[in-house]
């Protein structure tokens, strides 16, 4: 009987280690392939956001600049929001597409030169912060209109809006001005190291990003929540007060209007916060730790994911306005009808690109709003006949509600 030689224990253990190593490498390779596919897809999505956001924001600006809307305080702020949103799309969002589709070494767009580093970072921080504060100013202005009877005639006039916007702009520029002079440096090898200084590698992440989180997200969100909660509470109270004194048909219209306005406030506030907060939290609390513990591909995937979510908020305002603001949609439709008529060679001499309807009395919204006396305001409040966001209501509804 022949004795079969036994396999040495050392050889068996060595074989198992090799198999486990091969299995781990295969798993890691599969994970990297999956992460790379997600990165590639999201980088293309970043380019789509730039295109869609630019077109949508430009259309928003054109519609809001039309004669029927541009004379209103809220519209002035929303125009600035659209401009800032467009600028912000060409910062970190454009970098995502450049890094993973154009650069052969996955180089950041900010690392091309020191000028790119400072201008892109400064432009992005300022535009994001100014956009959020102009949205905050909308809620703040509407809440003051309800709380203080003389706000509209004293400090809330249309002519003052440009000064408020300039103050917000200069504050955001001044707050971030150090980025133009301190951010980034050239290494001894000639490469650019952005978002840090020679003496402080944490200059932007996480130190300045923490300030950005407060200025861009937390403070605006707190103010918008307080103002919008107050507006919604007054809206509900006024709608209940009108139920017993108005006909059923009017009741249904009022209730539906209040529901739309409440939905608009909730959408504008929470879409902004929900989509922008993850990126701020990641860059403040997790980015530094993940650089030490997480593989580079996985880290890139997380960063481009939160950035894509954040900049979606700045690319979809056009669709939010179309969905929640009927007057905006009507103005957009009228603008396209006028453009089609112009392209078809309509010889109507009365047609003007900036005016939609021949009845000019219908669009005295701003005049009606400023010509109200204090006594009319008090009677208006006494009977709980509040009007919110008149720029998003038809002229007929406004004239009826003021009478």
TrEMBL record:
GO CC terms, sorted: plasma membrane
Give an example GO molecular function.
G protein-coupled receptor activity
* Residue ranges annotated for the G-protein coupled receptors family 1 profile domain, each copy included: 56-321
Q: Name one Pfam family in it.
A: 7tm_1
- Keyword Membrane among record annotations: yes
Q: Which UniProt keywords apply?
A: G-protein coupled receptor, Membrane, Receptor, Transducer, Transmembrane, Transmembrane helix
Which compartments is it annotated to reside in? Membrane
Question: What are the TM regions of this chain, as residue ranges?
Answer: 42-65, 77-98, 118-140, 161-181, 213-236, 261-284, 304-323
Q: What coarse category fits the chief subcellular location reported for this protein?
A: membrane
Topology in the lipid bilayer is annotated as: Multi-pass membrane protein
* Name under which the protein is recorded: G-protein coupled receptors family 1 profile domain-containing protein
Source organism of this protein record: Adineta steineri
């Amino acid at each position: 009987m022949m004795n079969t030689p036994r396999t040495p224990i050392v050889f068996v253990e060595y074989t198992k280690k090799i198999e486990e190593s091969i299995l781990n490498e295969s798993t890691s390779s599969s994970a990297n392939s999956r992460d790379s596919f997600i990165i590639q897809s999201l980088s293309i999505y970043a380019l789509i956001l730039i295109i869609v956001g630019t077109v949508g924001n430009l259309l928003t600006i054109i519609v809001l600049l039309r004669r029927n809307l541009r004379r209103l305080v809220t519209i002035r702020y929303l125009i600035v929001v659209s401009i800032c949103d467009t600028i912000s799309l060409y910062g970190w969002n454009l970098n995502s597409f450049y890094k993973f589709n154009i650069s052969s070494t996955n180089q950041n767009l900010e690392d091309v030169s020191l000028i790119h580093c400072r201008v892109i970072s400064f432009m992005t921080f300022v535009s994001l912060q100014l956009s959020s504060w102009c949205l905050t100013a909308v809620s703040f202005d509407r809440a003051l209109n309800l709380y203080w009877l003389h706000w509209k005639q004293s400090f809330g006039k249309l002519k003052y809006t440009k000064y408020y916007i300039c103050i917000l702009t200069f504050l955001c520029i001044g707050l971030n001005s150090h980025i133009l002079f301190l951010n980034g440096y050239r290494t001894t090898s000639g490469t650019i190291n952005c978002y840090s200084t020679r003496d402080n590698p944490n200059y932007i992440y996480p130190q300045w990003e923490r300030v950005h989180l407060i200025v861009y997200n937390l403070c605006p969100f707190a103010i918008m929540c307080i103002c919008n909660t107050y507006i919604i509470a007054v809206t509900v109270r006024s709608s209940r007060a009108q139920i017993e004194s108005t006909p059923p048909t009017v009741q249904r219209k009022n209730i539906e209007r209040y529901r739309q306005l409440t939905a608009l406030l909730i959408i504008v506030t929470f879409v902004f916060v929900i989509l922008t907060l993850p990126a701020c939290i990641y860059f403040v609390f997790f980015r530094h730790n993940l650089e030490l513990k997480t593989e580079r591909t996985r880290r890139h995937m997380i960063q481009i994911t939160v950035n894509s979510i954040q900049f979606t908020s700045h690319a979809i305002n056009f669709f939010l306005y179309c969905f929640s603001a009927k007057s905006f949609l009507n103005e957009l439709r009228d603008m396209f009808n006028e453009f089609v008529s112009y392209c078809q060679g309509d010889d109507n001499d009365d047609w003007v690109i900036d005016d939609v309807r021949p009845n000019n009395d219908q669009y005295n919204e701003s005049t009606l709003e400023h010509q109200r006396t204090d006594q009319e305001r008090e009677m208006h409040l006494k009977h709980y006949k509040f009007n919110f966001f008149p720029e998003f209501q038809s002229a007929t509804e406004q004239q009826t509600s003021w009478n």
